[in-house]
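BUG: 3D viewer hangs when loading the predicted structure for this chain

Environment: internal workstation, default settings.
Expected: structure renders.
Actual: progress bar stalls at 90%.

Input used:
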Amino acid sequence: MRKTLLAVALAGMVAFAPVYAQSIHVPKIQYSERVLANGMRVISVPDKTNPTVSVQVWYDVGSKNDPQGRSGFAHLFEHIMFKSTKNMKSEQFDRMTEDVGGMNNASTSDDYTNYFESVPANHLQRLLWAEAERLSNLNVDEANFKSERAVVQEEYRQSVLSNPYGKLFNALSTLSYTTHPYKRSTIGSIEDLDAASVQDVIDFHKTYYRPDNAVLIVAGNFDQKQLDGWVDQYFAWIPKPATAIPRVTVKEPVRTADKRFTVKSPVAPTPGLLIDWLVPPSNHPDMAALDVASSLLSQGESSRLYQRLVYKEQVALEASAGLDGRVDTGLFYLLAILNAGHTPAEAEAMMLDEVKKLATGEITDAELDKVKTQVLTSRLTRMQSAQGKGMMLGSAVIIEGSAARANASLEEYQRVTAADVQRVLKKYILDGKKVTIDYLPEQAATADKKGGAK
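Structure tokens produced before the viewer hung:
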């Protein structure tokens, strides 16, 4: 019986678990790259053991590129891309994927917008045609614009206004950045979306949806020569505009002081807390150690924050740490959703204490080995599917600047030591300036202001 890549790798982890310094062999993603004459980058990942194929197109445009006063534009355009084209009806991507047992979806981040499909391998050709079709022949008209704007506005109401902690999560970027356009929320605002026009959308499409701003990734079961022919047939003819692609050049300044904000919610049942620090871009050598640090703090129920805040002290329903890596300056953050009767100040003191202990106290080999094994296992699991491999490569290209980073980052995790973890925590967290967001139910916030809260 054929062993899977994951089974072989995990067997290696068990064999070497007591001494992590001996590197675990992590198989690399095998891929090839080429660039079309119009500037489109093409990455192919053949896998004959897989009966499916994943087609992905990553555009180097995200919410940081939203026009001034038009927050949410990149996300709005993600929705419009599923509407009609010159030769396709609205929602035809659903029929071309779901009706044959596949799937399709898309996402928008601060730095990119990606579209991805997984289907049986014999449907590859028409998906390539369809992706080229919506790149080159999208119908951006008043009807499509208004219908999708309404959808996005309703999504804002559900995910930000109705979600008990939606306003807290939305505040992470908007209050943490002072200068960089990362301070604009990806989902935008209802007011900015109302102010948009169909001409704004047409201009956005012409500016960013072009072959030299796109990365096509095909992973799965295909013949390389046949794939190259189809890519040339459907994408190579699309002209490259003569105008330059606008790029964000603004840099977030170094923080010189701590800041504190209060956000109130009419729907939150209990308080919450967010604390964050600025960290380097995703391709910086320190990011692997920062990621391991966040995992040591919050990966699983045996992690330090869970044990302290949720299990022992029982001040929080949830306590976690995270690393939000981006093309430019990112964030390292702590999050707590509190139990009734407890305050953000209680959680803040405990979380900062645990960070200090991690940065200055003992990190055992067993604790570090466990977390690194979990990180590597998660990435190896993603590598089992064609879509997972494509996602790793797409993120590496856009966020870190090179497809090679998909493989290199795994090796960097293996090399992280306890000393590395403590060095980066001292440098960026203990010696850094933080933004703290107290999240209060409106009734509690009002009572606090009047001095009547207990």
